[in-house]
């Protein structure tokens, strides 16, 4: 049979209907699919041992001769044994195969084989169970580096190895070389054929590295090119031009002077909005850096030009907080501010919707409710998404679609390393607020074991005595769902039952520990009205201790809160802990963060100590990325980017910059990739983004 790239796998020996179905689950239908199905790991089977010299307890290759004909015995129904003794100059090895009756005919006395398996010793007798074996001189998967593929039920690694080997042997050279020659030479990348051969069956680990580098680069290159094209195309669309106004007019309304970073970002925004092209900007700033006022400024500009703005927040608590602070700031400036969340009564919603459609609201603040049908704007000019990493690309697009190419401003408190931000938000411009308002003292952070609990409660009492307020965060309510919120990682030791459930814990604190203080609790399962009341009471200083789940993680701002205690701290991710810590240190008082844990995991302790030792959100997020990987970091594909096969968006940062730079240069020379030599690039970009219609096509 002649195998070509297009040959269906059903034509490969050993692949029937059933196996073909299973292979299809892995995305494998044709020969070419096999060649681009990359191993997740490798086994080094190059070293071949003699029977006596083989190390015990690990998989090794042994070269030996079958000393007898294999003996088949049927122990009982469903249990066959094949036994065989093999020998070399100095030793003997006793091999047993379970339920592999065919072996009796496959192995011949007097022939030399390589056996791959684990050697064990019983007394002086060396044994091996169920090895893989090949005739010496006819070896495919012994004496070499062997790929380990991602599998599915019913498909063994051996089968995939066998199929892929045939595919690679027959047509690795036919795989198209899609990288432009210049790019390949500039970055010293291996050729396509070499790379495909060696990513599957590496001649050496050096060869594997070359292959991997080329294929990873390629992936990042097409990703970068696609995102850059998108950005380029945005240049053609017309947006509303919102004229700049003297910033002083806005500043006069603020109770504080701006930081240099805030001012710089506001100027960037003002320039974007006046340009006549739709703004698409990510404002990244650590917790407490003052992003809200930047958004307020943009809305003020829009309102001044007769345009409406929408601000979308990830939780009701946050939407209400924004509503309170922004009404206070902007209403006196003549900006009419409205609120739309899921918990507003139907009649109330209707009123807000009508006012929006009639242009009687200039700035609407809300949750996902803003996306629902029936929410229409008279003249939407600006859309702001707060804490954007919680919104998918699709949701952002859905809100923007309610206007005619409105300006888009995305605010994120999760500090993402810059290169990664450019990839994930590749079609956005990025501003960074890299300066905190003056007078903030860093939050003192301590990692504390359970046995110090009593002392910690004394500390709570002391701070409350000084007029401060305290948050206590628990990982979960009775159940661990939090509506639309991302969930806590369950990675710690100890059963979930150990978790300090919010309601019971709060009651216990109130009755047994702080009978004289006011303790309240907050969690995602409460009715929105209840949540609102609890938050309002805390903000007004009526409650002294607030026990809460992570619903307060995002953006909540109560400057008088000076201590946050996090129970079972090892169960939270680093970035999340940093967010939580950002709830304190917002006022003029020295603030504290206490991480309580009883973990025995060295790694978890390491993580908590990292947090205790630095306040730099960028450093923390880089650490987090290293520990958890970007997939986890952003939730399951929340960012809406195409899936990478090889590239690790956190780990391959250097290669990523190279690929980005290279894609940028290519697109400068040929913005639409229409020159014949760049066609293959365009094809690959299209394929890569085929599943991501929001971004491309
Ligand atoms: P975040 O970036 O986390 O959203 P906020 O916008 O909630 O931060 O601001 C945090 C706190 O800092 C708020 O109380 C806000 O009023 C205050 N703030 C913002 N900018 C300044 C500034 N330039 N000087 C002093 N306080 C500021
Ligand atoms: Mg905020």
Strand content: 15-25%
Please provide the count of β strands: 23
Distance between the termini: 39 Å
CATH class of the domain at 247-433: Alpha Beta
- Please estimate the helix content: 25-40%
How does the major sheet shape up?
A: 7 strands, parallel
What does this 3D model show about the protein?
The protein has 697 residues and is of the alpha/beta class. Among the domains are: 47-143, Beta Barrel (OB fold (Dihydrolipoamide Acetyltransferase, E2P)), CATH 2.40.50; 247-433, P-loop containing nucleotide triphosphate hydrolases (Rossmann fold), CATH 3.40.50.300; 444-614, 3-Layer(aba) Sandwich (Rossmann fold), CATH 3.40.50.300. 36% of the residues lie in helices and 18% in strands. It has 22 helices and 23 strands. A seven-stranded parallel beta sheet has the order 13-14-12-15-16-11-17, with helices on both faces. Strands 18-23-22-19-21-20 form a six-stranded parallel beta sheet, with helices on both faces. α9 (260-274) runs parallel beside α10 (292-304). The longest helix is centred in the first third of the chain and has 30 residues, at 205-234. Magnesium ion is lined by residues 291-292, 386, 413, 555.
């Amino acid at each position: 049979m002649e195998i070509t790239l297009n040959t269906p796998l059903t034509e490969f020996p050993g692949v029937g209907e059933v196996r073909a179905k299973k292979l299809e689950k892995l995305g494998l239908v044709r020969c070419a699919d096999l060649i681009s199905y990359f191993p997740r790991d490798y086994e080094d089977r190059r070293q071949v041992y003699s029977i006596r010299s083989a190390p015990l307890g690990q998989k090794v290759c042994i070269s030996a001769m079958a000393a007898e004909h294999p003996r088949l015995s049927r122990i009982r129904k469903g249990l066959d044994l094949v036994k065989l003794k093999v020998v070399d100059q100095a030793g003997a090895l006793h091999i047993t195969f379970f339920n592999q009756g065919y072996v009796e005919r496959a192995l011949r006395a007097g022939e030399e084989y390589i056996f791959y398996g684990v050697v064990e010793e019983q007394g002086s007798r060396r044994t091996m169970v169920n090895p893989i074996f090949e005739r010496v001189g006819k070896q495919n998967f012994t004496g070499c580096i062997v790929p380990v593929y991602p599998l599915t039920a019913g498909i063994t690694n051996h089968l995939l190895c066998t199929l892929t080997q045939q595919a690679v042997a027959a047509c690795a050279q036919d795989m198209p070389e899609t990288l432009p020659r210049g790019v390949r030479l500039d970055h010293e990348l291996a050729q396509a054929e070499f790379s495909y051969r060696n990513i599957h069956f590496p001649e050496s680990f050096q060869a594997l590295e070359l292959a991997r580098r080329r294929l990873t680069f390629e992936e990042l290159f097409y990703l970068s090119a696609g995102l850059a094209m998108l950005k380029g195309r945005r240049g053609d669309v017309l947006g509303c031009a919102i004229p700049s106004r003297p910033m002083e007019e806005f500043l006069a309304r603020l109770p504080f002077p701006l930081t240099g970073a805030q001012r710089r970002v506001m100027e960037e925004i003002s320039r974007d909005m006046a340009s006549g092209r739709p703004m698409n900007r990510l404002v990244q700033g650590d917790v407490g850096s003052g992003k809200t006022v930047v958004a307020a400024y943009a809305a003020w500009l829009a309102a001044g030009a007769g345009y409406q703005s929408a601000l979308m927040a990830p939780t009701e608590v946050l939407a209400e907080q924004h509503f309170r602070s922004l009404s206070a700031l902007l209403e006196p400036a003549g900006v009419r501010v409205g609120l739309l969340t899921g918990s507003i009564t139907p009649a109330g919603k209707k009123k807000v919707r009508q006012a929006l459609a009639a242009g009687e609201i200039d700035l609407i603040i809300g949750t996902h409710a803003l996306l629902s049908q029936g929410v229409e704007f008279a003249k939407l000019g600006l859309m702001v998404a707060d804490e954007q990493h919680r919104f998918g690309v699709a949701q952002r697009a859905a809100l923007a679609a309610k206007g005619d190419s409105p300006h888009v401003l995305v605010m994120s408190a999760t500090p993402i390393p810059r290169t990664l931000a450019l990839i994930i938000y590749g079609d956005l411009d990025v501003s960074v607020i890299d300066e905190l308002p003056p007078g903030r003292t860093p939050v003192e952070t301590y990692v504390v074991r359970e046995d110090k609990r009593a002392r910690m409660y004394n500390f709570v009492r002391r701070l409350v005595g000084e007029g401060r307020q305290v948050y206590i965060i628990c990982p979960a309510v009775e159940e661990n769902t939090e509506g639309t919120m991302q969930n806590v990682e369950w990675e710690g030791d100890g059963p979930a039952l150990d978790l300090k459930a919010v309601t019971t814990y709060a009651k216990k604190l109130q009755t047994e520990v702080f009978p004289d203080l006011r303790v309240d609790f907050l969690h995602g399962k409460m009715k929105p009205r209840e949540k609102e009341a609890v938050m309002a009471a805390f903000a007004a200083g009526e409650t002294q201790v607030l026990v809460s789940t992570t619903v307060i993680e995002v953006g909540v701002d109560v400057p008088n809160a000076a201590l946050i205690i996090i129970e079972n701290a090892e169960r939270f991710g680093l970035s999340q802990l940093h967010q939580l810590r950002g709830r304190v240190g917002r006022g003029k008082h020295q603030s504290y963060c206490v991480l309580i844990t009883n973990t025995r995991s060295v790694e978890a302790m390491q993580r908590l100590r990292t947090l205790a030792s630095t306040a730099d959100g960028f450093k923390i997020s880089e650490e987090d990325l290293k520990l958890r990987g970007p997939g986890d970091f952003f939730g399951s594909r929340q960012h809406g980017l195409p899936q990478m096969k090889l590239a690790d968006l956190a780990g391959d940062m250097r290669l990523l910059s190279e690929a980005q730079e290279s894609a940028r240069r290519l697109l400068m020379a040929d913005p639409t990739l229409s020159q014949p030599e760049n066609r293959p690039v365009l094809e690959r970009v299209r394929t890569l983004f085929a599943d991501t219609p929001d971004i491309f096509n």
